[in-house]
Fold this protein.
Amino acid sequence: MKIAMIGSGYVGLVSGACLADFGHEVTCVDKDMAKIEALRKGIMPIFEPGLAELVLKNMREGRLSFTNDLKPCVGDADAVFIAVGTPSRRGDGHADLTYVYEASREIAACLTRFTVIVTKSTVPVGTGDEVEKIISATNPQAEFAVVSNPEFLREGAAIKDFKHPDRIVIGLEDERAREIMTEIYRPLYLNQAPIQFTGRRTSELIKYAANAFLATKITFINEIADLCEKVGANVKDVARGIGLDNRIGGKFLNAGPGYGGSCFPKDTTALVKTANDYGAPLRIIETVVAINDARKLRMAQKIIKACGGSVKDKVIAILGLAFKPNTDDMRDAPSITIIESLKKAGAHVRAYDPESIEQAKLVLNDIIYAGNAYSCAQNADALVIVTEWEEFRALDIGRIVAALKSPIIVDLRNIYRPEDMAKKGVQYTSLGR
């Protein structure tokens, strides 16, 4: 099938490359000509394991191409995916649909035959209805169907998630679209991936509800971690004890500094706004958002306490800047709030991350960036683990302690065991233990 992917960011690029790998003919469209030229040379705009290899393979085999000219590829497409950004709107937190609606108008002008328009971007309930109205108003002669097909990709594991999904959700109101969407995802039948066909509004809500539920699990275990510290319990054992219940499950039950990234913060906020607009407020999700925002600030206070109550003129070494491992994504990363809070308290911050330093430089000023974990720790007054990259999971603790001025380690991901740290003379602080 011929597919046009509008937007070559995280979702569009991963989805386009994977669909091309299934054998479809995919053209990714983006207005950023510098990005298009870089992609044609095999230079990725994001870090995602395996993505560069997948893109280059499908380019060589003629199934994947990149352009800034929307008209020819849309006019020839069986399906056009909208995969543009939907950032939080300033002021009210609602999803900013400017790019979605702009893409809809441009697509409408190019339609020449029946085409399925697929919203892959994360959009509030009712967006598909508005896209349909825009296309009809822009091109009254157009034959088309608007479908919701939300993505469920984890950064750092996106290719695996696309090719081996838990489910594929397709929301439609026009049965003509079912055959085309079924054919697009037919290669996944071999993996027995379940396809759930729903109404369009239901599909749009599934995405938000899923992310809000996962954000709630994270926030729940973070609050339990705080209680564990007060009562002398171990949050890792508590998480395992409840996670073994198959009604609950163990995923997303790791205590940490709060959720971040491109999805959970904006999607929970947008869901709260939508619910209030419809007069059905989601008090649980409102509380989750508030607790998560406060938690990042509390992590900075935890570091300050571990340093004796003050970090003024002290050097704090930060390991991990991206919101999670295996990505360079700094959007709403806990490290940003933590570092800015430490700086306000008078600390000098030195940081290291295996992949996100260039992205971090765009949002974090007046800090020093190190080349590895050990140079980051050199002569620092304390070391803080913020992101659980694999290379931080087996550090030479003796070498780290020798590099530090004081043997203070704050582990916000519970990577190490307190008893092991005690044996090595480390003043060790973790979460919920």
